[in-house]
Write a structure and sequence with these properties.
The protein is of the alpha/beta class. The chain is built from 22 helices and 17 strands. 49% of the residues lie in helices and 13% in strands. It binds phosphoenolpyruvate and magnesium ion (MG). Phosphoenolpyruvate binds at residues 301, 303, 342, 439, 460-463, 510-511.
Length: 579
Amino acid sequence: MTTPRTELEGSIAAKGLALGSARVVYSAKIDVETEPLPSAGIPNEVKRFEGALKTARAELASLSERVSGALARDLSEIIDAHAMILDDPEFTDTVVALIRKEQLRATAALKRQRDLLAEAFDAIDDPYLRARRDDLDHVVSRVYAALARGGAEPERKPSAEGQILVCDTVAPAELAQLAETGLRGLVCTASSPYSHTAIVARGLRLPFACGVKHALAVVHEGDIILLDADHGRIVVRPDNIDQTRFRTLQKEAERLRRQRARVKVTDARTRDGVSIKLHVNAENPDVIAAARRAGADGVGLFRTEFLFMKRRELPSEDEQFRAYRDAIVAMAGRPVTLRTLDLGADKAIGGPLEMALEENPALGLRGIRHSLAHRDIFTAQLRAMLRASAYGPMRILLPMVSSVEEVREARALIELCSDEVRRARHPVADEIPLGAMIEVPAAALVSADIARHADFLAIGSNDLAQYVLAADRNNAAVAANYDPLHPAFLRLLFLVFDNARQAKRPISVCGEIAGDPYYTPLLLALGLCEFSMHPSALADVREMLATLSRKSLKARAPRLLHAPDRAALAEIVSSMATA
Ligand code: PEP
Ligand code: MG
C-alpha cells in the first residue's frame, strides 16, 4: 500500500521554494555503555573521554575555518559558545570524576552529567538559558559521536544534494555544513523564525519552515517533499498536479528574480508618487556593503552588539570609532543610525560583559538601562560615535527606552562627551539627531512626551509586540500569540504614529514587519515614510510600494483602529493590498 499525500503547515522562517527528497533525522539518542568498568580500565576510559573532547574541539576549529563571509560572523559566535562549554571544567571535570569515582563508562558519565545540567537549565524558565541548553545538547552530541567512533575519522556526512532536512531542530553550524553539500530546504517540528538557525537559513537563502508539528510522524526518509516556505506549506508525497503547480511557482519566482536583477535600483515610490525611504538593519559591517549594493537610502538600525560579543575584553573607544567611521564612510553620505549597546535578554551571548543572571532577562537590565548603569562603557561608546560623526551624516538611537528621564539623561551624557571629545581636538558634527526606540509599551504610551525630548522615533516592533502581547519572540509555543495583527498592537502603533505626527518628529519602523510586504499597505496607511529592514527584503518591499496608492490607503486607516479582532484586521489588510 502506498502512503498517501499529506499537507502540513508551519511558520515561515526563511522564504523560498524547494522540491527535494526527505532526509529525516530524529533527535540524537545516546546509547550508553552500561557494562561495569573494572578499576584497571579507569585510566584508559579517562583517556578515551579526553580524546573525544580533543576531537570535538578540533572539529569546531576546522568548522570555523571553513565558513567565510557574512555567515561566518553569525556562526562563529555559536561555535565559540560551544567551544566554551568544551573548555568548562564544570562540564569536563565532573565527567572525569564520574568515571574515576563511580567507575562509569565515558558515555554513561557524559549522559549523567548532561542530564544533570539539562535539569538545572529546565528548572529556570528563561529563553537565554533555554538557548544554552540547546548548545549543551549540541556539544554533548558531538563528544558522544567522537566516543562512539573510537578515534576513527568522522564519517563524512553523506551529501545532502537535492534533499530537504526534516528534524526537530538543527544546530546552525550543521545547517551551514549541509547547505555546502547541496541541501535544498529545512523543515523543523520545533524552532522559531527568531532562532539562530533561522537567521543562518535566511543568510544561506535556504527555504525553512519551522513549528511543523507532525513532520517527523508523517515524513519518511526519501519521501518527496514540496516546501513552500513563502507560505509555510509543505506537501509530503505530492501528486502530479502538485508537482506541476509547484514547478510553475518556481518558474515564476525565477522569472521575477531575473527581472529584478535587470531592473536598475530606483528610489522607492508609491503608485501615486510618494517617495518612501528604505533603510537597512545591519548586525555587522558586511551588511553595510550589501546595503549599498541593494540601493538602501541609509542604515536605519546599526546593531552595535557585534563589537561586544565573542571576545574577552571590551572593545576600546578607538576600535569602536573605526567600526562606526567605516560604516559611515561606506554609506557615502546616506545617514547611518548607530544604536547604542542593546545587550541583555536573548542578546546576552558570551563576551566581556559580566551580565548578571537574571530571573527574567527580557524584563531586566538591558538596552539603555544597562548603559545608564555602566557609565564607563556607555560614555566610551558615545565618544566613539561622536568622533565618527565627523565623517558623514549619523544619528544616535537609544534602545529599550521606557521613560522620558532616560532620554534626558542620555542627552546630557552626549553633551558631556561632546565637550570632552572636542577638547581632545577631535571634530564632532554640529547636529547629531538623538532618537528613542519605541519598543516598550510604557514608551509607546508616553511617546508624545518622548517625542518632545528626542529628535526622531524608531519603532522596534519585534520587542514591542512581545511586550504588548506577553509572548516571547523566541518561543515557538507562543508563536500564535505573537501576532502583529492583534488589535491591541495595532492600536498602540496608531497612537505612536499619531504622537510622532503631532510632535513633527520623523518616525521609522525597524522590526521584522517593516521588511514583510504583507504589512507594507498597513504601515503605509498609518503614515510610515521610513522603513528599515534586512537588505534581502528591500526589493520585495520596493515592489509592493510601487503597486499601492498612499492616498487611498490613508483614507482606510481609521477602519484599522476599530477592527475588533484578527480576522477583521486581516480582511482590511488584504483589501488594502489592492488599494
Ligand atoms: C526590535 O525590537 O524590533 C528591534 C528592531 O530591535 P532588536 O530586534 O535588535 O531587539
Ligand atoms: Mg528590540
